[in-house]
Amino acid sequence: MKKYKHIYFDLDRTLWDFETNSQLVLKEIYIKHQLQSRGIPTFNDFHKSYLPINHQLWDNYRIGAINKEFLNLERFYATLRSFNIQDKALAKAIGNDYVNLSPHQTALFPGTHELLNKLQHDYHLHIITNGFLEVQTIKLKTSKLENYFEKIIISETTPWKKPTPDLFLFALEQANAKAEESLMIGDDINADIKGAAAVGIDQVWTNFTASQVKFLPTYTVSKLIDILNLLN
Questions:
Q1: Is beta strand 182-186 parallel, antiparallel or unpaired with respect to 124-129?
Q2: Edge-to-edge strands of the sheet including 6-9?
Q3: Alpha carbon distances (Å) from 40 to 95, 175, 191
Q4: Residue-wise over 136-150: b if at least 16 C-beta within 10 A, else e?
Q5: pTM to 2 decimals?
Q6: Which pLDDT tens digit goes with each residue over 214-226?
Q7: Paired sense of beta strands 202-206 and 182-186, if any
Q8: Three-state DSSP class for residue 21
Q9: pLDDT confidence of residue 88
Q10: What digits encode the pLDDT tens for the residues 117-132?
Q11: Domains of the chain (ranges plus CATH)?
Q12: What distance in Å separates the CA atoms of residue 12 and residue 136, rounded to the nearest whole number?
């Protein structure tokens, strides 16, 4: 492997265990707002309905079709409507709870701290994330991740979102880095891997779920700690 100087990490689903943390908060919300008495039989029913709705709305947000205020409300309002609950005030309350509670969860993928501890001595480490500023900042702090990174690029503070090439070029500029000496590590084949590849940055795809894709990243790992083997 060639020598890299700068390593860029995605945050959600790469270091921060989004699914585990999100599910814990959604369970708390389901109980707090007594959603069973409102007509949603079980938490699993609520969660199963929410997931594809949230996924589609995030896709729309990434391409600029909707704003974050609409996303935060509609993901829960649409979920409630799928159970014939027409209550926008309830959806708004749930949305506020979710944004306030989720970033304080601290589940990370195995090997996160071990990997970052070792890499920080030999590389300049940075974050590129599509999340919201107020949420991602808290996640990094409460999970004790922020001190590993020199530059933290949160898309909301820029005009772009991954996989837009301009965001990656901006991240390179912020770190005074060159594409050929940089490496992008992320889970999302489109946002992280194809986005980085488009500007000449090598990539490590963290394929934790053994997914199959046609696009071939520079490297692929099934667990974070294996990145150390690639870099040695």
A1: unpaired
A2: 151-154, 124-129, 6-9, 182-186, 202-206, 219-221
A3: 17, 48, 33
A4: bebbbeebebeebbe
A5: 0.93
A6: 999 999 999 999 9
A7: parallel
A8: helix
A9: 97
A10: 999 999 999 999 998 9
A11: 6-17+108-231 (3.40.50.1000), 18-104 (1.10.150.240)
A12: 9
Quick check: 217 and 200 in contact, CB under 8 A?
A: no
What are the φ/ψ torsions at residue 28 (nearest 5 degrees)? -60, -40
Residue 74's CB is within 10 A of a number of other CB atoms, namely 20
Q: How far is the C-alpha of 156 from the C-alpha of 158, rounded, in Å?
A: 5
Q: Residue 188 corresponds to which amino acid?
A: D
- Provide the token pair at 41: 């039989």
% of the chain at pLDDT higher than 90: 96
pLDDT at 2: 66
Residue keyed to tokens 């609409």: 70
pLDDT at 1: 58
Single-letter amino acid, residue 51: L
Amino acid at 146: E
* pLDDT score of 32 more than 90: yes
pLDDT over threshold 80, residue 232:
no
